[in-house]
Design brief:
With about 210 residues, the protein is mainly α. About 70% of the residues lie in helices and about 0% in strands. The longest helix has about 30 residues, at about 75-105. The protein is flat and about 105 Å long. About 20% of the residues are buried.
């Protein structure tokens, strides 16, 4: 008759079960802190855009979302605001004249002659008025040279709009009109570039 070396083999089952539960609990709990931290970061309030001056107290805060107050004097700021508005309107006219010209050149034609003529007339009129608005402004002394460049650039746009209209009305096959439209678009882009230069000069002299 064989002798059982362990008369109570069942007594090892409970310790093994407990050991397995401890191991499971250990590995499960290890994952909890990291998951909890990430959730907190996502759901936490963003104070960077609500702090005064855009500063979070450590020099960074919400500086990427809040503009610093302008250090320009009121006269310079008012001048720049006026030119900014003119630049926006000039860019819109540039988009318009290019679109009309492309539609007139399309095959089949997407913009008929009468429509193209009236829209070219509007661009020419609007651009001339914008040029007069620039002419009526008195720039700060530090921006006088930039103002002269802005004026000559928008005058070129005015002349180009008139030339494009004349080319449309002529027997020209399109070379004069297309060149004039290209010149207008380039003048509008140059105006925008010079306006950026003007802002830089103003800030450098603030």
């Amino acid at each position: 008759m064989a002798v059982n070396p362990d008369p109570k083999p069942g007594r090892w089952i409970l310790p093994l079960v407990i050991l397995g539960m401890i191991a499971f609990t250990y590995f499960f709990v290890r994952e909890l802190p990291e998951a909890s931290t990430e959730t907190s970061l996502v759901s936490g309030p963003d104070t960077s855009t609500t702090l005064p001056g855009g500063d979070g107290g450590d020099g960074e805060g919400g500086s990427s979302t809040t503009q610093a107050p302008s250090s320009l004097d009121p006269e310079t700021q008012a001048y720049l605001d006026s030119v900014d508005g003119i630049n926006t309107a000039l860019a819109a006219q540039s988009t318009e004249i290019a679109a009309v010209n492309a539609g007139f050149n399309a095959d089949p034609r997407e913009v008929e002659y009468s429509d193209a003529e009236s829209r070219f007339e509007v661009v020419a009129t609007e651009t001339a008025e914008l040029a007069e608005q620039i002419r009526a402004l008195t720039p700060p002394a530090a921006l006088a040279a930039n103002h002269t460049t802005l004026q000559s650039t928008i005058d070129l746009a005015t002349a180009s709009a008139n030339e494009a209209l004349a080319g449309l009305r002529s027997t020209d096959t399109g070379e004069v009109r297309n060149s004039a439209v290209d010149a207008y678009v380039q003048a509008a882009a140059d105006f925008n570039t010079e306006l950026t230069n003007t802002h830089n000069v103003a800030n450098a002299n603030a």
